[in-house]
Design goal:
By secondary structure, the chain is α/β, with parallel strands linked by helices. It has two domains: 190 residues, Rossmann fold; 108 residues, CobW-like, C-terminal domain (Hypothetical Protein Yjia, Chain: A,domain 2), CATH 3.30.1220.10. The protein is built from nine helices and 13 strands. The strands form two sheets. The chain has a seven-stranded parallel sheet, with helices on both faces. Strand 10 and strand 11 form a beta hairpin. The chain is globular and about 55 Å long.
Length: 309
């Protein structure tokens, strides 16, 4: 399986480095590597991990200092050859760069087989947007926002509620359907990104939506013993997409011999090759993640059940 990659973009001073430090030190137990564009590697001191919970896998954060103007594939290959290899890679773009080219590079099939783009997170400075509303007319900032599957409206606690509502309304008009998270001190929900492989989810349908481990979000798990109809599944995903933050699963479709890895974050959905299911595990497993209260479990399960071939 590919190592998931999270691309973090955003304007100068928005808080990207703070977000990445939070992700690297969050108690998720994963070995994460960070690729930082145009300034030094993030230093994660051992003291930051001194209070780790018992039984948690040590975060051997692989940090590397480089620029993304050279051979991105070579940089990622260097990380993937480490022993042990990272279980996720976080790439930070420069605050003055357009992430579109990096996104295109990460979607290259050669790179995707080894390091698949999991999501693009755009960090926006809520305080700066409140003080200077004209920033949303800046072409570079707009490009960064449009590249984001999820937007972190950072420093939201420093902005009065009325101004924050105005910013959200403008973002909704510019980027309809985009997930916007209000954050402070870069504390994005780590569980939304670089998620576990769906093969680890149980091989049974849950009776109701299970509460997601990240506060403010819930998840729904669904399994099927037989293949799905691809057209019906695509129609269902299009219908559910406005409600979801992300979705991920191992799927098998009618007429296809091999399982497919399905991932959706924001407005972007992708299919890729997936390993065969282990013995005794349902061949179709899907997890949907949404903000609390947006999913109606019975209705969603009925839609998914209708996708079965």
């Amino acid at each position: 399986m590919s190592v998931p990659v999270l691309l973090v973009t955003g304007f100068l001073g928005a808080g990207k480095t703070t977000v990445i430090n939070h992700l690297l030190t969050a108690p998720h137990g994963k070995r994460l590597a960070a690729v930082v564009n145009d300034f030094g590697a993030i230093n994660i001191d051992a003291e930051l991990l001194a209070g780790s919970a018992e039984g948690m896998v040590a975060l051997q954060n692989g940090c590397i200092c480089c620029t993304l103007q050279g051979d991105l594939l070579r940089t990622l290959s260097l990380l993937l050859r480490r022993d042990p290899a990272p279980e996720g890679i976080v790439i930070e773009t420069s605050g003055v760069s357009d992430p579109a080219e990096i996104v295109r590079s990460l979607l290259d099939p050669v790179i995707w087989r080894e390091a698949a783009l999991d999501a693009v997170l755009c960090v926006a400075d809520a305080q700066a947007l409140a003080d200077r509303p004209a920033m949303l007319d800046d072409a570079l900032l707009l490009s960064q926002l449009r590249a984001g599957d999820v937007i972190s409206l950072n420093k939201a606690d420093a902005v009065p509620a009325g101004q924050l509502a105005d910013i959200r309304a403008r973002l909704a008009a510019l980027l309809p359907g985009r997930t916007v998270l209000e954050t402070r001190c870069g504390r994005v929900p780590a569980g939304l990104f670089l998620s576990d492989d769906p093969l680890a989810f149980p091989d049974r349908a849950l009776p109701a939506a299970s509460r997601f481990a990240t506060p403010g979000f819930e998840s729904l798990s669904w399994t099927a013993e037989g293949p799905l109809s691809l057209p019906r599944f695509q129609a269902t995903v299009s219908r559910l997409a406005p409600l979801l933050v992300r979705a991920k699963g191992i799927l098998r479709f009618e007429g296809q011999q091999h399982p497919m890895l399905f991932q959706m974050v924001g407005q972007r959905a992708t299919f890729g090759a997936a390993p065969a299911a282990p013995p005794g595990v349902a061949p179709v497993r899907l997890v949907l993640i949404a903000e609390n209260g947006r999913l109606q479990p019975d209705a969603v399960r009925a839609l998914l059940n209708d996708c079965r071939a």
